[in-house]
Protein: Methyltransferase
Organism: Panicum miliaceum
Amino acid sequence: MEAATMAWTAAVVGVGLVYWFVWVMGAAEVKGKRAVDLKMGSITRDKVQDKYTQYWSFFRRPKETATTAASAEKVPDFVDTFYNLVTDIYEWGWGQSFHFSPSLPGRSHREATRVHEERVVDLLGAKPGHRLLDVGCGVGGPMRAIAAHSGSNVVGITINDYQVNRARAHNRKAGLDSRCEVVCGNFLSMPFPDASFDGAYSIEATCHAPKLQDVYGEVFRVLKPGGLYVSYEWVTTSLYRAEDPDHVDCIQGIERGDALPGLRRQDEIASIAKEVGFEVLKEQDLALPPALPWWTRLKMGRIAYWRNSLVVRVLTMLRIAPKGVSEVHEMLFETAQHLTKGGETGIFTPMHMVLLRKPAAATEEAK
Ligand SMILES: C=C(CC[C@@H](C)[C@H]1CC[C@H]2C3=CC[C@H]4[C@H](C)[C@@H](O)CC[C@]4(C)[C@H]3CC[C@]12C)C(C)C
Ligand SMILES: C[S@@+](CC[C@H](N)C(=O)[O-])C[C@H]1O[C@@H](n2cnc3c(N)ncnc32)[C@H](O)[C@@H]1O
């Protein structure tokens, strides 16, 4: 073969390989976001690395972050930065619902996710015509499942404007934009009038609040008297031992890689809810047997993680993805190991469920 023919063949094969690697291998687990679309939210390309460094220095010591008032105030801004950095990677590698679910025998992850979300509808007794609030809505995976299953109208709030745009686009595509609304705002001080919702829920979102009282207090305010609120909380369980260095390492690894200003204990949740005026109707760790492990999805994807980090590195080298994406991906890979360990040892659960009611005749001081 002539040298020119060989060079052409090599070039065509090379381009073909890159195409296959990026577009086929790098396809989203749940179709919709491709590796080549990894942007890093509203952060401009040149700022991604800096923003990651700032995030990392803030959340490196999560407990200290939560305990001083000055830094607790900065938490929502850093959580916003975190979601700029991770939203596209989450969508690409996990889907449009940013939470865990117990595995279901013989059912796909997508189905298990939907069942976990529809449980909220049953707990709230949500009906057509109801107006529900989704506290920390992400890109709206749960919102769409809940609106579709219940016939209710849902208003979601998220601190991250990039997520607002993603969620609105998904809502339009799903034909649910007339019943699903998305607002950019802080759930610690919500832009909604008192008593304006029939029900509310939060799925793995309130763990970002430095003080749970603040977000529960806001939900209490915007609920109508008699309205129900369901929350899936990230907490440490009674098996956690603060004197065990392995436990501490695992929990800090979860906090650092997930923008958490200190995880709360399982037994704190109900008393905080009562403190702001709620009645506690039900409390259950949805991860406990007979539920099957929620962390198997994280574990079983180990080969996929290696493939993904390779894709991310190649995309960064080709300047398709901004510099800094590999570091963010690495941080997520590490936190996945800690989450898995937290699940396997039982010292952590991401689905401690509480069902709360604002009393029908709420007292003036609790309103
Ligand atoms: C509730 C929260 C988020 C929970 C989960 C949706 C995410 C927690 C850890 C994330 C991931 C870890 C590893 C990533 C992997 C390295 C990458 O290749 C593809 C995406 C991951 C699987 C990613 C997906 C989302 C998580 C499982 C928190 C923040 C309160
Ligand atoms: C892990 S995601 C869960 C999203 C969604 N509930 C789901 O299950 O797909 C956490 C969400 O909480 C939101 N959030 C965190 N802190 C917030 C705050 N102070 N105000 C509003 N939203 C916040 C994030 O922007 C993100 O959308």
